[in-house]
Description:
Layout: H1 2-6, H2 23-40, H3 49-71
Keywords: Membrane, Transmembrane, Transmembrane helix
Transmembrane segments: 25-46, 52-70
Amino acid sequence: xxxxxxxxxxxxxxxxxxxxxxxxxxxxxxxxxxxxxxxxxxxxxxxxxxxxxxxxxxxxxxxxxxxxxxxxxxxx
Length: 76
């Protein structure tokens, strides 16, 4: 029956789970919990929407410049 799914009659039926951890995903999860706790605790008010828009433009510009600079490296 296993050959019906993957086309290989010799494939093992057991599934080996990866032990690779994603540290970035853990950091994002901790940051999400921190933001949720901050919101529930009644943290400081957010800046005006216009200021947040300019902050997003600035972050996007910085990331774009970093991508351009990193793409100009010469391969040896």
